[in-house]
């Protein structure tokens, strides 16, 4: 069975084609600058690259170029689109109405549109990718895999906010959580590594990247997570503020005359480690700048580590006995320095990482000492494979 996985952003599209008989990635690619001058498709097949530079005015044109690329006689991997058995789509927000991966029908589409109010940059873009596939592959089933689905197991005391309950009843204002596909994959993978039944697993999953979230997993299910109504809550991130006093928002709006659109842009695009450091949202740039004596870059890195440390410790108290702490995502998988900074101080609780073991990138590695009371791992996430697996199950 061949399954195409599509992940659409507002002006980008990532894709992978899987042979699910052995979960092999046949080809993967990225389309950038959709609807902007200089559109570009870059496809990778093993060590070979195939590039198309041609304007693509919308996602329908982008998907058409993806189909042309994967069926290209010299650079593609299938001879005809009829070889695609199903398409799996990453959707960001399913709200309370969609609590698991589903074959897409009109009811699903309506839910996606309804919850676009909470994910205005993501859900509409996800829909564009779906509509393009429906148009170009009319007889192929499409499956939606939602970032919010894994977190629907959170209890009310963890997902409700301390505001009038009517706002939850009237507008569904609550914590939803994101990166669920990644946290789900890491939970399943950790259970296998520890040779435990997933329902017996308590762990902390740290998905750290430009967008970051931490998830407390209790008895194999999401129990609490850092992101909230939107992906803005929680950790300090690349350009997102994370947690702050809500009065900061109204204060800045009053003092600077910002409207809601400008304030939203400040919190999502101009804050985080970029705003604090004034250098970059890329943690590699920050580490280089900090090493060169840039004080603000150093402060930004310490803020990130301290916020993560606070959540890891707090979540361990929430879930009780903890089997594992797992680092994943671009930073979690690749920055030994950040992992060490986050875990510093946990020695007093008998949790220790081995500096030599910690000197790794990606893959699946145990980085804690032999006598550590909680095992600490680096495990590479694979959201696309998770989407492909769910799609295979449903079709």
UniProtKB/TrEMBL annotation:
Annotated positions binding Mg(2+): 7, 383
Function of the protein: Catalyzes the formation of acetyl phosphate from acetate and ATP. Can also catalyze the reverse reaction.
Keywords: ATP-binding, Cytoplasm, Kinase, Magnesium, Metal-binding, Nucleotide-binding, Transferase
Presence of keyword Transferase: yes
Site (Transition state stabilizer): 179, 240
Domain of life assignment: Bacteria
Short name of any one Pfam family annotated for the protein: Acetate_kinase
Subcellular location per the Swiss-Prot or TrEMBL entry: Cytoplasm
Cofactors required: Mg(2+); Mn(2+)
Organism: Anaerococcus vaginalis ATCC 51170
Subunit annotation: Homodimer.
Enzyme Commission numbers on file: 2.7.2.1
Protein name as catalogued: Acetate kinase
Gene3D superfamilies, sorted: 3.30.420.40
Lineage: Bacteria, Bacillati, Bacillota, Tissierellia, Tissierellales
